[in-house]
Specification:
With 498 residues, the chain is α+β, with helices and mostly antiparallel strands. It is built from 21 helices and 18 strands. The strands form 5 sheets. Strands 10-13-14-18-17-16-15 form a 7-stranded mixed β-sheet, with helices on both faces. It has a 4-stranded antiparallel β-sheet with strand order 1-7-2-6.
């Protein structure tokens, strides 16, 4: 290594290199090199730079020592199963009733489990009393010192390494919570052959600065100082700054994209009347989707208010003339958590729309469903309508395909004919997920005139309602919709929505 390479080092790196060159072995730990102006942390940091430039190698060793616990101190004086076995032998035989032994009840209770585990005794109840009969292994073990107590004695009085104690004994003592292990990692900085050839006198330490200031330029001192170099490839501890939860960030991004495309946001209440959730959408009151098995109902208050009489009468005429039944205003007043976002489109059409006009909403919806990888009971839906006299069904398919590809990142999209009471023609859109296969996004179509005219709109309206949560699954690369609400801290730290 030439002097140019050496002098390109930072001052901290030069100081560490000089300390290693002055040592007898050319190797030392950061703690051993620490001095008044160089703390161990700074040496650790400098060593990474020296290693990346080939001046040193960093050798790591792991040392695990054993420490005795309070439980271990008790075990050091008495091993429960050994105490019971010795008390039985003291009776002059190999069998005795447990309650006849001069043993503390707490100790004998612990001993029974270990006697059985170590196969030191056979136990049977006789008239409500426990008879304990020692086996041959127990009798043999009593004839020699306890290896557990010998190990505990060593651990209590000297530094004992993990590998110095038999693995079975360590396992036994750990299960009894008699010992704890402490692991220490030691780093040793070792000079490379090329670094050993460096002349310490050639290492020049100059004033080091991190930025060029106006004062340095004016007084010409920039010629005499050394600018600190930063190696961006050196590994550092990861930082996890505060950020939005990935799913919430996705919703914000989705809303921003619609606004950028010129859409206006629609808003409405979470609790709707059946009128706006169903009747205004030309869904007959005897439709099975309005049954309690497919929607929630509010217990109290049970009913809400209907809009102006003119709108109610127009909706009533539309239902009775097309569906041929007697429309019930009392059923239309029933309150419910909204089952879809399309009710917001009905409210917007009633309030008035621009021509041409584009409207959207990210609506929280509620349905009694079975929780699985692609279904939630409470979910978000992206609702949208475009109003213009020149719109066609082909326009709708183009908009849906663009959403799936650009917003969700789907690569394969397909459409199926479908049926909805409020659109004609109607279509279902699905996209292919890499893990789940084809996943339904939602439905769309052109609003029927039986829906739009009672609300005061004569022009064509294309509409869609797509599952935002399923869009997010594609965008975030997950295969279980429930993971959108996960508390997995590793995923939350790693996942970033731009």
């Amino acid at each position: 290594m030439n002097n140019g390479t050496v002098n390109a080092l930072t001052n901290e790196e030069k100081k560490v290199l000089l300390l290693l060159l002055s040592s007898e072995t050319g190797a030392a730990s950061p703690e051993a090199l620490a001095s008044g102006d160089m703390v161990a942390v700074a040496i650790h940091r400098a060593s990474l730079g020296l290693a990346s430039r080939g001046f040193i190698t960093i050798e790591e060793s792991v040392k695990t020592t054993l420490r005795i616990t309070n439980e271990g101190e008790e075990l050091r004086s008495v091993i429960p199963e050994r105490a019971v076995a010795e008390a039985i032998r003291a009776t002059g035989g190999t069998s005795a009733y447990l309650d006849e032994l001069a043993i503390d009840k707490r100790l004998s209770g612990i001993a029974l489990g270990w006697l059985k585990k170590r196969q030191w005794a056979e136990m049977e109840k006789e008239g409500g009393r426990m008879r304990v009969t020692l086996t041959e292994p127990a009798i043999e073990a009593l004839g020699r010192p306890s290896p557990l107590q010998d190990a505990l004695e060593r651990i209590a009085t000297e530094v004992v390494m993990l590998e110095e104690v038999d693995a079975s004994i360590v396992s036994d003592l750990k299960s009894r919570k008699a010992i704890e292990m402490r692991t220490e990692r030691t780093r040793t900085l070792v000079l490379t052959d090329a670094a050993r050839a460096v002349d310490p006198a050639s290492i020049i330490i100059r004033e080091e600065v991190t930025q060029l200031t106006p004062d340095l330029v004016r007084n010409g001192r920039w010629k005499d100082v050394q600018f600190k170099r930063f190696d961006v490839s050196v590994p550092v501890k990861p930082l996890y700054p505060g950020k939005k939860q990935p799913y919430l960030a996705f919703l914000d991004s989705l809303k921003a994209q619609f606004v950028a495309l010129g859409f206006q946001e629609m808003r409405g209440p979470l609790i709707e009347t059946e009128f706006w959730n169903f009747d205004a959408l030309f869904q007959p009151q005897n439709h099975p989707a309005r049954d309690w098995t497919d929607t929630y109902r509010l217990i109290s208050p049970k009913q809400g208010r209907l809009p102006d009489d003119g709108t109610v009468e127009a909706v009533k005429r539309s239902h009775e003339s097309s569906w041929k039944y007697v429309w019930d205003p009392e059923k239309a007043r029933n309150l419910m958590p909204r089952a879809h976002g399309t009710c917001l489109s009905a409210r917007q059409l009633h309030a008035g729309v621009s021509l041409p006009g584009k409207y959207f909403s990210i609506a929280r919806c509620f349905r009694p469903d079975v929780l699985d990888r692609t279904h939630l009971i409470e979910f978000n839906q992206i609702e949208g309508i475009i109003c213009d006299e020149s719109l066609t069904f082909r326009n709708l398919l183009g908009v849906l395909k663009q959403f799936a590809e650009e917003i969700a990142g789907a690569r394969q999209v397909r459409f199926y004919p479908d049926y909805y009471p409020f659109t004609e023609p109607s279509v279902q859109m699905s996209a292919k997920h890499p893990d789940l296969g084809w996943v339904e996004f939602g439905g769309a179509g052109i609003f029927r005139s039986e829906l739009t005219r009672p609300l005061g709109v004569e022009e064509p309206v294309i509409a869609w309602g797509l599952g935002v949560d399923r869009l997010a699954m594609f965008k975030l690369g997950i295969d279980d919709i429930r993971y959108l609400f996960s508390d997995d801290i590793t995923w939350l730290r790693r996942e970033v929505m731009m």
